[in-house]
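Why do we care about 3D structure at all? Because function follows from shape, and shape follows, mostly, from sequence. That is the central idea of this module. The next example makes it concrete: a single protein chain, its amino acid sequence, and then its structure expressed as tokens.
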Amino acid sequence: MLRTLDITATIALAEAPFHNLYFGHSFELSLDCFICERQGRTTFLTVGGERAVCTGDRSHGGKHFAPARVAGFDPMSGRDRKALHVVVQQWWAPFRDAKRDQASAPVGTGWVRFELPYTCPDGRNGRASIQSNLVLPHALTCEHCDTVLATGEDVPKIVERL
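And the structure:
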């Protein structure tokens, strides 16, 4: 079955020196994988990629390609907010987890992590991230000058399109 997920994320920008903070073109999403028959696998997706990469299971050969892709990536910027809407398509089939003997789920455990690259005014690059399983609000701080860049006030949301 082809499943389509809508994922949204929003951060509130701090009034700080300009750091050119933006949503990166790669992210991680937890999905149940029918290839390695494991639940809650960290899956790496990249905008423009034809397929994803599942972290897999060591007993089944480790990392492998996964039948998922980014079908839409729409970052939006305002004066005080940055938002992102992502559409992910995933081929999915029911299975029982190879280790836990539990039934799989189309959307899995449902967490996502977005990287937010930036450039400090001193010229050095850095990375922050926001994910759906963080305690919020979560301050994103420059690793070079300790300036608060933004705050995650809402967790990224994953909704299956019906």
